[in-house]
Amino acid sequence: MKAFFEGIQYLFVNILFAPLDFLRALELKSWFVANTVNWIFMIICAAAMVYWILQLKIFEDAGTENQDTTAHSFLK
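Now predict its structure.
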């Protein structure tokens, strides 16, 4: 049973976390390069928010937005 848990340890520490160890070492050289994953996620989230707001505006302009407070039975 001990070998099973050591195998799990080896998988996570030496294989799956290797890219994170690389980014941690890279941060000492260049902060911006080390945080490219964060920048990518921020760009994706910003694009999703812009898309969502544009879709809300489309439905608002078309008049199909239901803003009645009784749209759900639990709000009655």
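The two ends are 58 Å apart (CA to CA).
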